[in-house]
Amino acid sequence: MSIKKIDLKKTRKNGKKICESYLSALEVLRLDLEDSYIFSTSVISVSSDQKTENNIEKLYIEYSEEKLHQFHPASNFLKMCSKISRINSQCGDFLLNKYFYQKTDDIIQNDILSIPKREFLYIKNKSYEYVAHISDEVVYFD
Protein backbone atom coordinates (compact mmCIF):
# COMPACT_ATOMS: atom_id res chain seq x y z
CA MET A 1 0.00 0.00 0.00
CA SER A 2 1.53 3.27 -1.12
CA ILE A 3 0.82 6.77 0.04
CA LYS A 4 -0.90 8.91 -2.57
CA LYS A 5 0.61 12.30 -3.32
CA ILE A 6 -1.62 15.34 -3.68
CA ASP A 7 -1.49 17.30 -6.90
CA LEU A 8 -1.45 20.75 -5.31
CA LYS A 9 -1.85 22.67 -8.56
CA LYS A 10 -5.05 20.83 -9.55
CA THR A 11 -6.33 20.82 -5.97
CA ARG A 12 -5.92 24.61 -5.74
CA LYS A 13 -7.65 24.99 -9.09
CA ASN A 14 -10.59 22.94 -7.77
CA GLY A 15 -10.70 25.09 -4.62
CA LYS A 16 -10.80 28.27 -6.69
CA LYS A 17 -13.58 26.89 -8.91
CA ILE A 18 -15.61 26.03 -5.82
CA CYS A 19 -15.22 29.58 -4.47
CA GLU A 20 -16.18 31.07 -7.83
CA SER A 21 -19.30 28.93 -7.94
CA TYR A 22 -20.58 30.80 -4.86
CA LEU A 23 -20.09 34.30 -6.31
CA SER A 24 -23.66 34.95 -7.47
CA ALA A 25 -25.23 33.65 -4.25
CA LEU A 26 -22.82 35.73 -2.15
CA GLU A 27 -23.55 38.85 -4.17
CA VAL A 28 -27.30 38.40 -3.66
CA LEU A 29 -26.75 37.88 0.08
CA ARG A 30 -24.48 40.90 0.39
CA LEU A 31 -26.95 43.15 -1.40
CA ASP A 32 -29.80 41.79 0.70
CA LEU A 33 -27.88 42.46 3.91
CA GLU A 34 -26.87 45.96 2.80
CA ASP A 35 -30.56 46.77 2.29
CA SER A 36 -31.43 45.32 5.68
CA TYR A 37 -32.32 47.73 8.50
CA ILE A 38 -29.79 46.23 10.91
CA PHE A 39 -26.90 47.24 8.65
CA SER A 40 -28.08 50.69 7.65
CA THR A 41 -25.65 53.56 8.22
CA SER A 42 -27.78 54.86 11.06
CA VAL A 43 -27.15 51.68 13.04
CA ILE A 44 -23.48 50.94 12.30
CA SER A 45 -20.85 53.52 11.53
CA VAL A 46 -17.80 52.27 9.69
CA SER A 47 -14.50 53.03 11.32
CA SER A 48 -10.91 52.77 10.17
CA ASP A 49 -10.06 51.16 13.50
CA GLN A 50 -9.14 47.51 12.79
CA LYS A 51 -10.78 46.22 15.99
CA THR A 52 -14.04 47.97 15.17
CA GLU A 53 -13.99 46.62 11.61
CA ASN A 54 -13.46 43.09 12.91
CA ASN A 55 -16.42 43.46 15.28
CA ILE A 56 -18.62 44.79 12.48
CA GLU A 57 -17.51 41.96 10.21
CA LYS A 58 -18.28 39.37 12.91
CA LEU A 59 -21.72 40.87 13.48
CA TYR A 60 -22.32 40.97 9.73
CA ILE A 61 -21.34 37.32 9.25
CA GLU A 62 -23.23 36.11 12.35
CA TYR A 63 -26.34 37.94 11.20
CA SER A 64 -26.08 36.51 7.70
CA GLU A 65 -25.61 32.97 9.04
CA GLU A 66 -28.70 33.34 11.25
CA LYS A 67 -30.74 34.92 8.48
CA LEU A 68 -29.93 32.30 5.87
CA HIS A 69 -31.69 29.03 5.50
CA GLN A 70 -29.24 26.22 6.18
CA PHE A 71 -29.43 24.99 2.58
CA HIS A 72 -28.68 28.35 0.95
CA PRO A 73 -25.39 28.18 -1.02
CA ALA A 74 -24.07 31.40 0.52
CA SER A 75 -24.56 29.86 3.94
CA ASN A 76 -22.36 26.93 2.97
CA PHE A 77 -19.60 29.29 1.85
CA LEU A 78 -19.74 31.32 5.07
CA LYS A 79 -19.65 28.15 7.19
CA MET A 80 -16.67 26.91 5.19
CA CYS A 81 -14.88 30.25 5.73
CA SER A 82 -15.63 29.99 9.43
CA LYS A 83 -14.04 26.52 9.59
CA ILE A 84 -11.00 27.72 7.66
CA SER A 85 -10.65 30.78 9.92
CA ARG A 86 -10.35 28.49 12.94
CA ILE A 87 -7.43 26.74 11.23
CA ASN A 88 -5.80 29.83 9.71
CA SER A 89 -7.38 33.24 10.26
CA GLN A 90 -5.54 34.85 7.33
CA CYS A 91 -6.91 32.24 4.93
CA GLY A 92 -10.43 32.85 6.21
CA ASP A 93 -9.92 36.62 5.86
CA PHE A 94 -8.67 36.16 2.31
CA LEU A 95 -11.70 34.11 1.26
CA LEU A 96 -14.24 36.45 2.87
CA ASN A 97 -12.67 39.54 1.37
CA LYS A 98 -12.12 38.02 -2.06
CA TYR A 99 -15.51 36.39 -2.54
CA PHE A 100 -17.96 37.99 -0.11
CA TYR A 101 -16.70 41.59 -0.20
CA GLN A 102 -15.25 41.19 -3.73
CA LYS A 103 -11.97 42.97 -2.96
CA THR A 104 -9.00 42.74 -5.31
CA ASP A 105 -5.88 40.76 -4.44
CA ASP A 106 -3.87 43.99 -4.12
CA ILE A 107 -6.32 45.48 -1.61
CA ILE A 108 -6.42 42.25 0.39
CA GLN A 109 -2.64 41.93 0.41
CA ASN A 110 -1.75 45.54 1.18
CA ASP A 111 -4.69 47.01 3.11
CA ILE A 112 -6.37 44.10 4.86
CA LEU A 113 -3.69 41.51 5.57
CA SER A 114 -0.71 43.91 5.27
CA ILE A 115 1.71 41.17 4.26
CA PRO A 116 4.45 40.84 1.63
CA LYS A 117 3.60 39.44 -1.82
CA ARG A 118 5.27 36.07 -1.22
CA GLU A 119 3.37 35.50 2.02
CA PHE A 120 0.13 36.61 0.34
CA LEU A 121 0.59 34.07 -2.45
CA TYR A 122 1.18 31.37 0.18
CA ILE A 123 -2.04 32.38 2.01
CA LYS A 124 -4.01 32.50 -1.24
CA ASN A 125 -2.84 29.03 -2.32
CA LYS A 126 -3.38 27.58 1.14
CA SER A 127 -6.91 29.02 1.20
CA TYR A 128 -7.82 27.20 -2.00
CA GLU A 129 -6.27 23.99 -0.67
CA TYR A 130 -8.43 24.24 2.47
CA VAL A 131 -11.55 24.81 0.36
CA ALA A 132 -10.75 21.75 -1.76
CA HIS A 133 -10.11 19.62 1.34
CA ILE A 134 -13.33 20.69 3.06
CA SER A 135 -15.27 20.15 -0.17
CA ASP A 136 -13.64 16.76 -0.73
CA GLU A 137 -12.21 17.85 -4.10
CA VAL A 138 -8.55 16.95 -3.54
CA VAL A 139 -6.74 15.63 -6.64
CA TYR A 140 -4.09 12.93 -6.30
CA PHE A 141 -1.31 11.94 -8.69
CA ASP A 142 -1.90 8.60 -10.43
Q: Explain this structure to me?
A:
The chain has seven helices and no strands. 70% of the residues lie in helices and 0% in strands. With 142 residues, it is an all-alpha fold. The longest helix is centred in the middle third of the chain and has 18 residues.
Order of helices and strands: HHHHHHH
How much of the sequence lies in strands comes to under 5%
Kindly state the percentage of residues in helix.
Answer: 55-70%
Q: What is the strand tally? A: 0
Structural class label: mainly alpha
Q: Averaging pLDDT over every residue, what do you get?
A: 83
Give the terminus-to-terminus CA distance: 14 Å
What is the radius of gyration? 16 Å
The number of helical segments is 7
What's the shape? Answer: globular
Largest sheet: none
Q: Which regions are unreliable across 5 or more consecutive residues at pLDDT < 50?
A: 41-52
Topology:
Blueprint: H1 8-21, H2 23-35, H3 50-67, H4 73-87, H5 89-100, H6 105-113, H7 117-134
Helix pairs in contact: 1-7, 4-5, 5-6, 5-7
